[in-house]
Amino acid sequence: MRRVRWRTTRPNSTTSSSAWPSGEGFREYLSGLLAPRERNKTITCLAGAEPVTGAGKPEVQRLQFFISESPWKAEQINDRRLALLRKEPATAAHDGGVIVIGDSGDRKDGTAAAHVGRQWLGRYGKTDNGIDTVTTVWTDGRVYYPLHATPYTPAHHFARGRSDPAFRTKPQLAAALAARGKKAGFSCRAVVADCAYSTSDDWHLALREASLPYVVALKPHRGTWARADQAWGASGWGRLVARYQVPFSGSRAGSVVATTSRQGESGP
């Protein structure tokens, strides 16, 4: 791996510097991301230094230089990590696992930074200004590990807002990540998501086009009609979703079993 040069100020062609391996930079960066911190993961936080006053410390400066100048590619590193997981028998994906879709956000001030906008932040349970990231995780109940992640970009960052061809909703991003996980070799019984994704037709259609069965929770005010033997049959799919009491009038009054269709079966 190529070695990068650093010092407490940004190095240039006229200054002498010490060599610092990129591997050590990545190790410090990863350790900072995984370490439990109460602060947002800024450069000073990742390096374990005080905010503002610790910005000039050598460990902060070299980490900043590694992130901004070292020629590593996040996608290549993630692909290598996933390849190692597939190769190891203890973590190799199989048809009995599931791909779990979710999203998580952090508060952030301002509106100019990439991906920042006022949106629902599940971590805080409210709508606030911040950045939200859509993620996929593979698990079989015994082991679990992240697959891919992509930030959601609010509509105001696009010239034509939500009608811009480049704009993608969170469900659209999630479906693309699930399909990407399958293509990368992580087979599964189903894609699993919470009720936030149950109202998106784009999400359902994208998963069906990718031949990915799915199980999604339904919001209390929404129901899906199915015969009892189909919803709770031997396939077991019905047992993975919740049962809600949904009020209807007339002949449709009564309980509704929330269920989902498998690839190749007719939907509700």
Describe this structure as you would to a colleague.
- The protein has 268 residues and is an alpha+beta fold.
- The chain has a domain of 72 residues.
- The chain contains seven helices and ten strands.
- Helix 5 packs parallel to helix 6.
- It is globular, with a radius of gyration of 23 Å.
- The N terminus and C terminus are likely disordered.
Give a brief description:
This protein is an alpha+beta fold. The protein is built from seven helices and ten strands. Helix 6 links the parallel strand 7 and strand 8.
Count of DSSP-assigned helices: 7
Task: List low-confidence stretches.
Answer: 1-18, 232-268
Largest β sheet strand count, sense and barrel closure: 6 strands, mixed
Strand fraction? 15-25%
**H-E order:** EEHHHHEEEEHEHEHEE
Gross morphology is: globular
How far apart the termini lie comes to 54 Å
Q: Decide which structural class fits the backbone.
A: alpha+beta
Q: Mean of the pLDDT scores?
A: 76
Number of strands: 10
